[in-house]
Amino acid sequence: MESMTLLQALIFGVVEGFSEFLPISSTAHLILTGHLLGLPQTEFLKSFQIVIQSGAILSVVVLYWRSFLRNWEELKRIFCGFIPTAVVGFVLYKIIKKYFMDDLNIVLAALFLGGIVLILFEKWGSSAQRSEVGVGKMTYRQALLIGLCQSLAVIPGVSRSAATIISGVLLGVGRKTAVEFSFLLAVPTLAAATGLDILKNADAFSKDQFGVLAVGFFASFVVALICIKTFLAVIQKHSFAVFGVYRILIALVFWLFLMRA
Predict the structure, then answer these.
(1) How many CB atoms lie within 10 A of CB 122?
(2) How do residues 138-151 score in pLDDT, each as one tens digit?
(3) 218-228, pLDDT tens digit by residue?
(4) Do the beta carbons of residue 55 and residue 217 sit within 8 Å?
């Protein structure tokens, strides 16, 4: 089995920190990065790609800690939205790791179709004016349905941030509120995914691999911490269509050139 170098771990961490909060699927980008680096999709690499996402999530905790410690109304909505993904992720954990993350065609198809959805959303679904009531005043029905849509992101290539933001806007939540809720909902979602994976696979990691995990985690945390405020402004104010085009182009490039090489 080919081992991962610290430089490769650093590259993964940078990719994760940059892509986690954009509607382009960080998991898909981590899988494609592994493909470009020539790393086999081993059980360790799959776990690595899950665990380092918690680095980016820690940046949200650092920047939004008041929402988790002081705002009980927001916390209740976050927990409500987390429930569907927790159930789906726990039930489908083995299938996700064994089949979804191994099949590059599934990843590329999800990227491609997700790009189309983003373009269609900007054309027909995002024009209506919606009031910005704030996360703490969302209805529990909205939070639960957004969480249900987030659970689609167990399929690599289905962007968690895109699923939550689009569903939130379509459910009548203001765009700024939907973006903030997406950021906050990421914390328990990816923390739970990381905890479950470590619980099931910690005994299989060597000391060297824990060092690689630490590098990837720290890199994703630092990059996300630097970028998250900019991403928040970009996602709130700019069209998702550009991200849709990007997703489609990435999928086509891999299908037409790299997968045939």
Answers:
(1) 18
(2) 999 999 999 999 99
(3) 999 999 988 88
(4) yes
